[in-house]
Please model this.
Amino acid sequence: MKRKQSGGNKGWPVRLAICESAIRKQDEFVFKHASRFVDIVAKATSVRVEKNGQTYTLDAMCERGCPRVELLYLLGMCENRGVTNALKMTGFDSHKLPQRLGEIEECAANIKRLNGHAVEEGWGGTEFGKVLEMARVKRGMIASFLQLPDCLHEYASLVKHASKHLGGKSDFYLNLAKAALVNFVRERTNDDHPKDVADLLSVMLGEEYGEVEHRVWQGKYQDRLTHYQRGPNDSPRLRAMKTLLECEAAVLYRMDTLHPGTKYLRQVRKTVQRLSDLA
Model:
């Protein structure tokens, strides 16, 4: 029997499983090459755990098999990072962005017509298009302009995808960070321990985050993870580009250099990101 999907999450077109993998790979790099940064995050998180009266919960999770530093690091990374609206994501607010993307699409259509691919004459279509087609046969540099309409279409699609699913109210990064913590606890203890994990997350997310909220989140996240469905108009190439964009955004937010914190901590994050880029 097919599992019923909740209307709000049906077909959420983000490959969360691959994004989780990107996050995990980034964390592996950080633990191997930037242990100082790990210690900074773990110590800062430990202070918050003690201040919020969750030391007993932390100790209990460690006794069940969770290494303390790794657990504190993963918990400390559960901050609501990322952009909050279209303006911060793209430079245009939610009212102007569709107009600008429409202009890009219109430009792509005009270029396609100039290249002769929007008329009925057949090969080349326009004399300019024939020149570009001949250049492609000869592998000439100007032949790349034949692909410009597709590039503009893909660019507009990526911007729209980022604005809708990687920013705004999607909590894209926070979902991944919480999943990384839950997966770690499950792997180390063979159980999700929802109450204790919720108690620890309340240190980062506020006292209002409890077991009920955590279970609701788990259900919605699992729905999105399991019922991934790409956009119906996405070509394989465009879908691959969206997946790459999602992974890049996940890692960027993981090491977000603009997130509020001490100046030193931001500098360390920048250093870790540069090292990761070279790996």
